[in-house]
Amino acid sequence: MSFENTEEISSTINDLSKSIYKHNSEVGWWDDLEKLRSEMENVLDFIDDEDHKSEVLNSINTSINLIITQKLALIHSEISEALEGLREDLKDDHLPQYHMFVVELADALIRILDLAGAFDIPIGSIVMKKLEYNTKRVDHTREHRSGTNGKKF
């Protein structure tokens, strides 16, 4: 199986990711990251001692990784909320025309695309490549999954 319009789909997802990040950055959700990026530029421009520069950059990178960790935890929380909505058959509080399960999946997707946009990850391209790769995986076939030691779910 191959996917049609791969480039167009990749581009659309990448554009959406960039748009979500741009909006969220403009309203302050990424201020900490922007401050760290600015500090990183200052370190590169103003610290001459290579050992000290390396130490400061490592500290900044650790802080950036903590921001990523926080964003991943928020993605996880959206998935947990989707599970809660499914288990309890709840309507969403903010969009009551939809089931909580689907709204929380949308929230998780928004957060994933936002994170990808913040770090210039071409997530659309990677998704399409991963989909294509998965079509060739033996362990993703019906026969393999139904066999001994196959992935049941």
Describe this protein's structure:
By secondary structure, this protein is mostly helical. It is built from six helices and no strands. The chain has helices at residues 6-26, 31-46, 50-88, 100-118, 123-135, 142-146. The model has no long low-confidence stretch (mean pLDDT 94).
Question: How is the secondary structure organized here?
Answer:
Blueprint: H1 6-26, H2 31-46, H3 50-88, H4 100-118, H5 123-135, H6 142-146
Helix pairs in contact: 1-4, 1-5, 2-3, 3-4
Summarize the structure.
74% of the residues lie in helices and 0% in strands. It is mainly α and 153 residues long.
**What overall geometry do the principal axes of the alpha carbons give?**
extended
Oligomeric state of the chains? single chain
Mean pLDDT: 94
What is the rounded Rg?
20 Å
Please give the count of helices.
6
Q: Runs with pLDDT <50, length 5+?
A: none
Which structural class do you get from the secondary structure elements? mainly alpha
> Helix amount, in percent?
over 70%
**What is the first-to-last residue Cα distance?**
21 Å
Let me know the largest β-sheet: none
> What fraction of residues sit in β-strands?
under 5%
Number of β-strand runs: 0
What string, H for helix and E for strand, traces the elements in order?
Answer: HHHHHH
